[in-house]
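Data card: per-record layout.
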Amino acid sequence: MTHAPSTSTPTSSAIALVTGANKGIGLEVARQLAQHGHTVLIGARDAARGEQAAETLRAEGLDARFLPLDVTDDASVAAAASTVKAQFGRLDVLVNNAGVQLDDLPPSRVSGAVLRQTFDLNVFGVVSVTQAMLPLLRLSGAGRIVNMGSALGSLTLTSDPQNMRSGYWLLAYAASKAALNAVTVQFANELRGENILVNAADPGYVATDLTGQQGFNSVQDGALPAVRLATLPADGPTAGFYNIEGQVPW
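The structure for this 250-residue chain is written out next.
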């Protein structure tokens, strides 16, 4: 069963979809985009949690609506795209935030099942949602796609033995985020000249459920790189990787 967004009232504001937005960085990205005046669609698999997140933002005076979306389910992705088209006729911002981190073993001991599950959500899900939403983004006139990356996907940083990131055992997660960087560049290259900017955001080490509530960046700061990329002007960069301080090396 599918559910429509919480409110079906037409809007002339920018329409932004944030996947995995019922909690953590995704919810904060949605909050900050709504504070910028966007109508925000809370993409989430769980209806109760997604609606609760949307209601939390509405209680703050923000325009937020729940959109059922399981990025690993092709039927769910297609239904979400159809709902956005029917309700709004276009999409201005897509933030591919949904992700998972399952491994904490040495690379030699990570199972194929963990690799497949991680890539299914962190990479294949991003491609699926982006492909489904691209026709709507093309109707925007100024589309923005932001993929939530990680510095652990930077081969430059993680190959440096002096960098703390080289000490983490996260084969599936790091490899999926490195692959996501390539996905980002591929879409950016295809969409050059179409006024759709595609970039990856590194939130930093943020205390969320994904990190086991460990981290030294606040959720507010972690959301900033994605929000900045989602609200770039027409002459903004594309095919880049950015954190709160600036560009991150691939």
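Known properties of this structure: The mean pLDDT is 92. The first strand starts at residue 15 and ends at 18.

See the next section for split statistics.
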